[in-house]
Amino acid sequence: MAEVAHAAGVSLATVSKVWNGRADVSDSTRQRVEELLRQQGYRGRRAWRQEAAGVIDVIFSEIDCAWEGEHLRGIEAAVHEAGVRLVVSSLERGETARRQLLQRLRAGRTDGAILATMTASGPLPAALTRLNVPIVALDPVRRTADLPRVDAANFDGARAATAHLLGLGHRRIGLVTGLGELVCSRARLDGFVAAHEEAGVPLHRDLVEQGDFDFPSGVVAGGRLLDRRHPPTAIFATSDLMALGVYEAARLRHVSIPDRLSVVGFDDLPSARWAAPPLTTVRQPLREMGRLAARTVLGLADGGRLDTQLVVRDSTAVCRDAA
Length: 323
Fold this sequence. Notes:
Layout: H1 2-8, H2 12-19, H3 27-40, E1 55-60, H4 66-82, E2 85-90, H5 95-106, E3 113-116, H6 124-130, E4 135-138, E5 149-152, H7 154-167, E6 173-177, H8 183-199, E7 208-210, H9 215-226, E8 234-237, H10 240-252, E9 262-267, H11 270-274, E10 280-283, H12 286-297, E11 304-306, E12 309-311
Parallel strand pairs: 1-2, 1-3, 3-4, 4-5, 5-11, 6-7, 6-8, 8-9, 9-10
Antiparallel strand pairs: 10-12
Protein name: LacI family DNA-binding transcriptional regulator
Domain HTH lacI-type: 1-53
InterPro entries: HTH_LacI, LacI/GalR-like_sensor, Lambda_DNA-bd_dom_sf, Peripla_BP_I
C-alpha cells in the first residue's frame, strides 16, 4: 500500500479508503489508485452488506466424514441469516484445485473465506490476504497467530475425558493421538498428561499410540494397545473415528466393551450415539464452531474458543481390577 501511495502521489490513508471501498475519494484518484493496485495484483474489498447477495467461501482440504458436515450445518445457518450465499470447495485434487480456486477468487467472486483445518496453513492464506479477502481459520491444524480463528477447548476436553476414566478406577489408560505436528493433537495429549498429574497417577507412556484421526488408524493403534503383554483397561482415542476403530480392534480380539475395555472418543459425531455400545466422548460444538466462523468472516463476531463437554454413554465402566 505504501508503494501504491508513493506511485499515485497520494497518502496511505487515501489508498486505504480506495482499497476498502470508501466513497470519500475523487473519481480520478480512485481510478489511478485502483489501476496501480491491479498492477500489483491486489483488489479492493467490496462491502457485501450493500449488495443484493454476497458470497462466502468455505474451503476444506477434503470432505469425507460427518465432521465437515456438522461444521457446514452451522455455517449455512449463519449465512442464511445474513442473506448471503455459500460456496463449498475441497482441495482434494491438490494443486489443480487450489489454482482453480484462486483464479475464481481473483475475479472478485467472494466476500470472505473460511479456511478449515489444513487449508488455514500453507500458501492459501497469504494469497487470499493479497486479494484483500477477509479470512477466518476454522479449527486450524497449525498456529495462525495472524488470522482470526475459531476452535474448541481441546486441552480441557482431553483432561475431562481422562479424569472420567481415572475416576472409574482405571490406572492403565491407553491413548491414541493424532499427528504430532497438529495443534489439537498436542493440546489433547497435554490434557491427558495433566489429568494424570492432577490425580497423582503414574502415566504409562508405553500405552501411547499415534493415529491419523481416521477409522483405519484407530483399528491399527487399538490393536497394538490390546496386543500388549499388559494391555490397558481403558483407551482414550482423540477422535470418534479412531475410537470406533478401537471398537473394531476389540471386536476382532473378542474384548467386550465396556466389561473388559472402556473407550472414550472426542468429537461427538452422530455415529458416536449409534455405536454399540453408544460411545462416551468429548463433545466438540462443531455446528456452533461453524456458525461462529461464518459470523466472524462476515464481521459480526471476533472468533474465539468454544467449550467442550464430556458426554458419558455406555462405552465406559468401573475398572474390574479396581473393583
